[in-house]
Amino acid sequence: MKIIIASTPATGHINPLFSLGSILVKAGHEVVGLSANAMRDPIEASGARFRAFPPPADLDFRDVDAVFPERKNIPIGPKQMLFNLERAFIEPLTAQYEGLKDVLWDFPADVIIGDNLFFGVLPMLLGPRSERPPIILCGTMFLHCRRDDGAPHFVGLHPARSEAQRQEYAAMAKEHDEAVYAPAGRTLDKVLAELGVGPLPRPMVEAVVTLPDRYLQLSVSSFEFPRRELPASVRFVGALPIIPNQAPLPAWAHELDGSRKVVLVTQGTVSNHDFGHLVAPTLEALADEKDVLVVVTTGGRSVDAIPGPIPGNARLASYLPFEWILPKIDAFVTNGGYGSVNQALSFGVPIVAAGLGEDKADVNARISWSGVGVDLQSNEPIPAAIREAVRRVLDEPVYKLRASAMAKEYRAIDTRFEILRIVEEVARGPAAGWTDASEAKQTRRAARS
């Protein structure tokens, strides 16, 4: 079948979507990848054909602060979240939608797949069902549908344990909505109205879960806060396969021989502009731990960007093949990127997390709540706190046991099979044959004109 995969131009969205794309290509499907020109290489590496967004959406979010320099001066919190939603996700919507329509003109897709913040599909989801292909969105971050306890998203709150806490959460959610979702929603509804659709029936981060034909959460249910009733669209599909051979083995690969515990440290590929936040303090924290080898990957930046002295027990690389390194590590120190956290957990690796920006506070809250690691609840933890947390997850068996139990849940899901099954299921569903209905409507319009 013909499939369009449309992605926000950020590594944390591109990598999982085109890992999924590789599965579809290998199964014999014809895939077109739609994103920014900066993402051509990873899209084509999956076997998909590349198509670029029109210029207003042709952005490179691998360095968001380079795209929006003013963002650097906005503190982490509601103001930065509102800025991110309006500038990075709502403003490009019209051009993304036009790009989708351009691809559909000569590539009548059977299914469209996008990430959870690709708002370019919203005009289709709000329009007539007969005039669009089935649409699947993928949860590349924690599940956004409304929580049972009414807590706001993106602030890192564990499930409420009392009525008083639920009331506290409700007050926080009201304040959060007024500061973020209400103004962002008004902006989004204005854009949608200009396209002849809308308004959204619910807040945008919930709408992208409930409106598509299916919503694939790229995790397991044990790594998500419990809900009495999930939207009918949601399917947990586990961790996507790691795309192999994305980086060569480092010269020091032979040193991971089991003689020392291995701790992997990363700030990911987005929040890696300042390695003083997590990488440098972790190197300092573990410099004297003789039983530990500290492995750092800089997510594509030069290792020379790491400040301070490099201890003798540290090994550095710009990129590492995760399919090689994850089975060899004993702990993972991360700022909380959703994809890498799920990959680590699928190998049973306990985690030390420190990050508050983007979706990281909520990802890291799930790490501590589920018992698979320690959340330092800081964007810039001090070395002493990191050392204590790393020693806990290395020395206290409960963390490894809990992470191993969760890994069994990942292994119980045949992710490749589930993805192929769901894609084929929606392609045969109510929106099948949409091209006939759409072409008929175009013919009627042409006749009237």
From TrEMBL:
Residues 291-425 form the Erythromycin biosynthesis protein CIII-like C-terminal domain. Transmembrane segments: none annotated. GO terms for molecular function: hexosyltransferase activity; UDP-glycosyltransferase activity. Pfam families: EryCIII-like_C (PF06722). Keywords: Transferase. Coiled coil: none annotated. InterPro entries: EryCIII-like_C, Glycosyltransferase_28, UDP_glucos_trans. Gene3D superfamilies: Glycogen Phosphorylase B (3.40.50.2000). GO terms for biological process: antibiotic biosynthetic process. This is UDP-glucuronosyl/UDP-glucosyltransferase. It comes from Methylocella silvestris (strain DSM 15510 / CIP 108128 / LMG 27833 / NCIMB 13906 / BL2).
